[in-house]
Amino acid sequence: MSDRADNLNFPRGENTGKPVFKRALVKLSGEAFMSTSNRHGIDTETVSSIAEQLAEVHDMGVELAAVVGGGNIFRGLAASARGMDRATADFMGMLATVMNALALQDSLEKRGVYTRVQTAINMQEVAEPYIRRRAIRHLEKGRVVLFAAGTGNPYFTTDTAAALRALEIGAEAILKATKVNGVYDCDPVKNPDATMFHRLSYLEVLNRELEVMDATAISLCMDNSLPIVVFNLLERGNLERICCGEEVGTIVCSDR
Description:
Layout: H1 3-7, E1 23-28, H2 44-59, E2 63-68, H3 76-81, H4 86-109, E3 115-119, E4 128-129, H5 132-140, E5 144-148, H6 158-169, E6 174-178, E7 183-184, E8 196-197, E9 199-201, H7 202-208, H8 215-223, E10 228-232, H9 238-243, E11 250-253
Parallel strand pairs: 1-2, 1-6, 2-5, 3-4, 3-5, 6-10, 9-11
Antiparallel strand pairs: 7-8, 10-11
């Protein structure tokens, strides 16, 4: 195991009441910004709930960054499947992530949490351009950094952007927020007998084709021993419990 994984004290168990790592990156899908009743757009109450959870962890002293998706507004891959040029569709999806990041920034700053949005596409009137050293400096000063526009390149998902940014800023883990409790052997919504994994290796995820993150992101994490924790964002307190060392959701990491 790498020092990064060892610092997280895998496997984890009891809640220590104190942060088990200094810096983490949260991966938020575009769907996380929608309400359960409306399958499109940005729901302000839902964004407020996300902001509250991030603020709680930030107040514990954890340096937090986040990568946001844009699927609640526009899905580049889906549009490409319907005949749109893939690169054009992906750039449109990147712009959707900026809208989500700005909404989350607004909600965080209403709670007194200083926040910076950095985008991989230059739009200085709206947000800062992504500059690695500047992002790290923001984190060191206690600001939450929201990364938008993916990697700035078509054909790459925001999962890959999350893995890339986490490694660039020296995050100790990716905390992947979902609407289920962890990683299952099949869809738990469709199959009530689905079995949840508590711990997986990167190779198991790739070989079983489990829907944790895309293969490029998993491979990048595997090559650099960057742990991934998949958890249910809808259950309040989960993010804080993970940051305090409690075993929540599914951990994807290297084999011991």
